[in-house]
Amino acid sequence: MRGISMPTHQYARLADAYLQPRIPNPVPGDRPKVQIPDILSLAMTARAYTRVVMRLRAQAESDARAFARSHVSPVSSRPATRDGQVVRSSSSRTPSPTSLYSHGKSSVSSTRGAFRSPLVRLHRAPLLRVFVPSPEGEWLSDSSVVECEAELKRAGVLKLLRVGDVVWDVAVGDEGNLGRMVWDGSYLVDLDHKYSRMGELSPYFHSLAFSPSYFHRVIRTGVNTVLNPGGNPIVYLDVSPWGQELAANLQLLQDRATTTTPHGTLHSVVHWLHRSSFTIRPPVSPHHPHAYSHSQNLRIPIPSVAGFFIDPGWYGTVIVEAEGTNEGLADFQARCGPGAFPPRADNVTSKMRSEKERGSRRVYRVLREKSRPGEIWIRAVREKERVM
């Protein structure tokens, strides 16, 4: 229980106290003036917390599978008849407000399989903990990252980790995303700071393999009043496999947005933007052609990415927005891949700009204020929005 009841900021305070230089006692036998923290106990606390989180995730997924197997839609039956006439049962008693059938469905079915825990949520990344004091300060060195991986092995969860699991070195601090790394299947990967000073998901990960809200509140997003006022997270997508559909649905529209001035006043601004969409259709079971299936054998592989599949959270319509300028249109056309649009007559300046922005053509932000299940909104992020 210590890992849950102990405030997270105390880990960093105790780690700093441990790393402080200590003067040896001038007189043998005297008690030290500074109490040295028991870092072994803190490390074991973090390991125990990580094991609990992994156990809760396994329990939540097991309960969800059991609920899915036991959930059977009710079959409507024909009404009883007597001599060709329909017999309707009636009762002089009014239904109770708390009756199981007065609200149309049983309350038992609504609560069955509902796993709730403040530490684990289904379809969200778990936040695992390790305790490794960093002599370099807030930025973890390569040796500190290797020690974090060793702590996961000592906790006995190395074989249970999945791609996308977030590991937090609580000894670094609790501000922003300090000490947070993502497991890529073999190693821990640092966060990327190109488009956010707090850190975002690294471009090594394919965002289609995770639900759009998978890292919500696990990897914190910073708010930028100019570039990212809504605090929307970065995702990395390759939309070129749907380039033809995006080209067919492309429109130039006017959009009204509310911005905040440095003095705090709100202004309504009308600007132009390019908007298009493509559809990711769920796989259909051959035995039940009218029912969607999410089984392992019917998952949709991510195009040109071996071993990864599209998460069902992306099924439906994906709406893509880009700047309404000529540069924004050229960037959007380049993201759609060759063949989606007629070739452009580029000059030397546009070719240099295109080569510079080649690495950012997979970068988008999820517009959380517009997105909903079955309809995900994303906005293209260009090279000029980099902060580092």
From TrEMBL:
Composition bias type Low complexity, residue spans: 86-99
Ranges where the record places region Disordered: 67-111
Domain of life per record: Eukaryota
Biased composition annotated in UniProt, kind: Polar residues: 100-111
Protein name per the record: Uncharacterized protein
Organism per entry: Suillus placidus
